[in-house]
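Troubleshooting: if your tokenizer reports a length mismatch, compare your output against this known-good record of 318 residues.
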Amino acid sequence: MTATTSHRSDNDFLAVHSVDEFVYSVPDLEQARHFYTAFGLDVRDEGDALALYTFGHPHRWARVLKGGDAKRLAWISLGIHASDEARFRQHLAAKGVATIAAPAHADTGGIWIEGPDAIPLQLRVAAKSSPSQPAPREFPPVNGNAGRSPSRSKAKAARPLYLSHILLFSADVDAARAFYENVLGLRLSDKSGSVIAFLHTPHGSDHHLIALALSNGGGLHHSSWCVPSIDEVGQGTQQMAEAGYAQGWGVGRHVLGSNYFRYVRDPWGSYAEYSFDIDYVEAGNTWPAADHPGEDSLYVWGPSLPEDFIVNHETAAR
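Known-good structure output:
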């Protein structure tokens, strides 16, 4: 698919521009440290939490808190431009969206509201961390018909470049989509009925910044991390299996978003995804959104879907 260009200034869009950070709690931080270190992230201790960075990038993409007997999504911080903070306050008031108190352990700055499925959302002024150009695409060098494969003896561990998107569970995908579109300014990329929807920011992002999947309540299904090659998807699959995380889905290729994927099941029943070559929506462009058949909502090719892939283990544990 290609997108068509509209010629409006970036300042015309009142919309969040990034998932600045997502925060959740787990029973055992050392288990989380082991999983994300093996995954290839730069895991740091910050206060009582683990902070997730990608190597060579200054942005903190996520934090993991200790608490409870199961994984729980605590809140999501969404980045906005400084010039939009006052506009958002006026917009939220006009929409009748009330502010709320910040959750425990969260900073009180920015604008706090209750999002779909009772997920606390923070709108805070932040530098844009969602990509502003298509993801890197590395392929083996062209050298006739010989020597194009990387050497196993020299292969390096997969290290993601940045957070591409998060997929959230929702008890009502249509209502949640309407909120993210009408209140927060995101736009539909694609959907399949009322079961799944993919949303991008008009400020420029991958095919989806936030995706929504039907469940019996809110929660985090997966975080998706960009890698620059299909070899890194495979390398990540191998290194996670060797670290004890062989369960998951993929390698395969999605229809919506077009990316190659490997989902690695984490210790709490959710997933971290290696993603390569996802579609990109440039700032100001209009994506040809469509409602797709159910069979196109998951994959073109790949192994069969795990039986519990779309089970919301957060609500199951309540």
